[in-house]
Amino acid sequence: MFLSRRNGFGPLDKAVAVLVPLVLIAVGVVVYLATRPGDCAGGLERHDGECVGVTGEVFEANDDIEALVEAVADENARVAKAWSAPKQGETPMPYGRIALMMPFTSDDSSAMTADMIRRALAGAHAAQLRANSSGGPHYQLLMAPDGKDLDEWRPVVDDLEELTDDRQTPLVGVMGLPSSTPETRDAMRALSERRIATVGPVITSADMNAPYFFKTSPNNDLLVDALDQYLKKNKGRGKGFLVFDSRPDDVYSRNLHRLLEKKFGAKYGLRKRSASFLGSTGPVAGIPQRFQSAAQKICVTDSDTVFFAGRDQDLPALVKRLSQEPSCDRDNPVRILKVGIGLEPTLTTDELTAMLRETRTTLVAAASVTPEWWRTKNGAPVGLGGFLSVFEKMRKPYDLGAKPLDDGYAIMYHDAFMLLANAFDRSYSEANEGTDGSTGTPSPVRTPTKDDVYNTLIDASIVDTGESTRCIGCLQGAAGTYGFEKSSDTDQWPVCKPVPVIEHPAAKHRRPGTTYRTFAKTFRHPCP
Question: How far apart are CA 202 and CA 130, in angstroms?
Answer without folding.
Answer: 21
